[in-house]
Design a protein that fits this description.
CATH class: Mainly Alpha
Helix content: over 70%
Number of domains: 1
Largest sheet: none
Number of strands: 0
Strand content: under 5%
Length: 450
């Protein structure tokens, strides 16, 4: 049996795990979901969800991975051999590939927008209607959208095929600091804009009259989506951790980094939007329609436009790496595939599954595929709205009751004879609070209310 990969350093793990968590969910999805849900009040509940739910489940995944030194399927099998619980691991593998298939379509769009913004497309004084037309013409081109899907997945599989330390750790060690640097540059610049004050007021001053159950559950769902929880990514990354690594500190660092990136994305978006009198509730179009119009008006838009889309592409890549790695680790551990063969097989499956999503904006067959949704929207609903919370719910039950939260806590402790800070609260949260909240999210998703 080939020797399993390991992280060369704790920092390498933190950057890789943070890279898995940091993605389009933070920089593309977080600002528009925040804008649609009242700004600062959504941010308040999002941070609560990250601390009291996200971090709790992340520790559960990391501890299970490190204790078993296996992929998601192998981890459940090692704790409870011959039981149906390994189906939860398979759910994680399928969820990772499912999300990869449509997520890489949007990721491909970031490559195209980086390219055209670098050529000065958005510095030519285009009107909002003309910028809308740029987007419509682009997504209506089936060859180009499929090609970009293939390119992005191939690039991801190449990095994963290089191994844990030589591929994932090395590349995320380059990409994550670069991502953070670009974020800081854009954040500082956005704070100099005339509408920064109004934007920050909307983003940082909560109006609790806007609180609703739907908004709270949306904040919780965003926290799980942005932290890559419920699909086995953190089980996989945790399995490459040494027993000497401080899992307790590393979990906090990963969550802090992920939350900071989402927070800075809001700092970039809202002052910019308020400066030009645009709607913070513009939805998913905020990045690909609204912001290019904004960049066309900024004095340094020719520079910051390409920087922003390059930032999006990096964030997407660090996430797709972990999506490919979940299924790759299963094939390497359980099926004894070579790593390159496993990675590119996963990529090929994701491309085939992703082509209908790429065609959802150009083909009448896939634009209204089923239940009034496009194929891409249907994939997002199935994998992100149902499969992710279901996976996280089952994982919390397994770690809390089947393996035992007390055993998992021993794996988290920096010193085995001494409880980590908040250990009793963590056990209570994992066994009672997390399952109740995740069940509510799942119920709302199934009823179509979230």
């Amino acid at each position: 049996m080939a020797k399993r990969g390991k992280w060369n350093s704790t920092l390498g793990f933190v950057l890789a795990a943070a890279g898995s968590a940091v993605g389009l969910g933070n920089i593309w999805r977080f600002p528009y979901v925040t804008g649609k849900n009242g700004g600062a009040v959504f941010l308040f509940f999002y941070i609560l969800a990250v601390v009291f739910l996200g971090l709790v489940v992340m520790y559960a995944e990391l501890s299970l991975g490190r204790a078993t030194q296996r992929n998601p399927v192998g981890a459940f099998e090692r704790i409870k051999p011959g039981s149906p619980w390994k189906a939860v691991g398979f759910l994680g593998v399928f969820t990772g590939v499912g999300i990869l298939s449509y997520y890489s379509v949007i990721a491909g769009w970031t490559l195209y927008y980086f390219y055209i913004s670098s050529l000065g497309k958005f510095s030519q004084g285009l009107t909002e209607a003309q910028i809308d037309e740029v987007f419509s013409v682009f997504v209506s081109n089936p060859f180009l959208t499929v090609l970009l899907l293939v390119v992005f997945i191939f690039l991801t599989c190449f990095i994963v095929s290089r191994g844990v330390s030589s591929g994932i750790e090395r590349w995320t060690g380059i990409l994550m600091p670069l991502l953070f640097l670009i974020l800081l540059i854009l954040s500082v610049y956005s704070l100099t804009l005339p509408g920064a004050g109004e934007g920050l007021k909307f983003y940082l001053k909560p109006d609790f009259s806007k609180v609703s159950l739907k908004m709270i559950l949306s904040a919780v769902g965003q926290a799980f989506f942005s932290l890559s929880l419920g699909m086995g990514a953190m089980i996989t990354y945790g399995s490459y951790l040494s027993k000497k690594d401080n899992l307790f500190a590393s979990g906090i660092e990963v969550v802090a980094f992920d939350t900071l990136v989402a927070f800075l994305a809001g700092i970039i978006i809202f002052p910019t939007v308020f400066t030009y009198g645009l709607s913070p509730r513009a939805g998913a179009a905020l990045v690909f329609k609204t912001l290019p119009f904004t960049f066309s008006k900024l004095p340094l838009g020719r520079l910051f436009g390409p920087l922003f889309f390059f930032l999006l592409a990096i964030a997407a890549l660090t996430s797709t790496i972990s999506l490919v790695e979940v299924a790759t680790s299963y094939l390497v551990d359980e099926r004894k595939f070579s790593r390159p063969r496993a990675a590119f097989l996963v990529g090929a499956v994701a491309v085939l599954l992703g082509i209908p999503s790429a065609l959802s904006t150009s083909s009448s067959v896939f634009s209204k595929f089923a239940f009034g949704k496009s194929f891409l929207d249907l994939m997002d609903y199935i994998w992100a709205n149902i499969s992710l919370p279901l996976g996280a719910l089952l994982l919390s039950v397994f770690v809390g009751y089947i393996w035992g939260a007390e055993k998992a806590a021993l794996e988290i402790r920096p010193e085995k004879h001494r409880k980590f800070p908040g250990e009793d609260l963590w056990i209570y949260d994992l066994k009672y609070f997390v399952p109740i909240v995740l069940s509510a999210i799942l119920l709302f998703s199934l009823l179509g209310s979230s």
